[in-house]
Amino acid sequence: MLAKFFEEHFPVPDGADVCNIGIGAGYWDRYLCYQLRGGSLTSIDVLADCCRALREGLENEKNPARVTVLNADVMDLAGMEGAFDIVTMVGSTVRESGRGAAIVEKALSLIKPGGSLCLQTLLDEGEALPVDALCAKHGAAVAAHLFDPAYGYGARYWKIAKI
Ligand SMILES: C[S@@+](CC[C@H](N)C(=O)[O-])C[C@H]1O[C@@H](n2cnc3c(N)ncnc32)[C@H](O)[C@@H]1O
User: Fold this and answer.
1) Taking a C-beta distance cutoff of 8 angstroms, is the pair 123, 93 a contact?
2) Domain definitions of the chain by residue range
């Protein structure tokens, strides 16, 4: 479902710079590598093991994509505001970060004007994020939204476009 949502709503322009926050097992980052059209991927995770596994996996398969793996807490990243055409933050990253709206605001800050955020959350209804208010604060708008109850909890997907 995530790949379908991404492919439907995020045509990747030639040379686009893409960033993913939260590597985990690295499947999503590996998928993103193959969506690049001459651009770059920056993958960020606070856990060194996740970063190392992604780097090794890409090396082992001799993946030709231009990928930078950053071992950092995204909340501490400085100097990358407005650096990316597309930022993704999916799976359990928002939940695991424990930062709620603040990590979404950080993701929004990394996007260029005209760029977009692919956000997926796996949160209980009581934990729902104030996405419309966050968009208003950051000069962005919801361009697409999907709710998928298929996994027994609410998976929500957004395309958030930065104006
Ligand atoms: C389990 S993964 C899920 C995301 C992955 N893209 C997926 O869909 O499988 C979540 C990752 O987010 C990372 N993470 C959580 N908070 C973070 C933060 N503040 N900065 C960077 N990475 C973070 C965790 O270390 C973990 O590896």
Assistant:
1) no
2) 2-6+14-162
At 125, the pLDDT band (50, 70, 90 cuts) reads confident
Q: Quick one: which atom of ligand 1 is closest to the CA of 29?
A: 6
Residue 49 Cα distances to 18, 41, 56, 59, 69, angstroms: 22, 19, 10, 15, 12
Helices (H), 34-160: 48-60, 93-97, 101-109, 131-137
For residue 149, the model assigns a pLDDT of 85
What is the torsional sign of CA 56, 57, 63, 69? negative
For residue 99, the ligand 1 atom closest to its alpha carbon is 19
Going by alpha carbons, the residue nearest to atom 12 of ligand 1 is 22
Q: How far is the CA of 96 from the centre of ligand 1 (A)?
A: 7
- Output phi, psi for 153, to 5 deg: -140, 170
Which superfamily is assigned to 2-6+14-162 in CATH?
Vaccinia Virus protein VP39 (3.40.50.150)
Q: Whose CA is nearest to atom 2 of ligand 1?
A: 24
CA atoms of 73 and 113, how far apart (whole Å): 24
At position 15, the amino acid (one-letter code) is: G
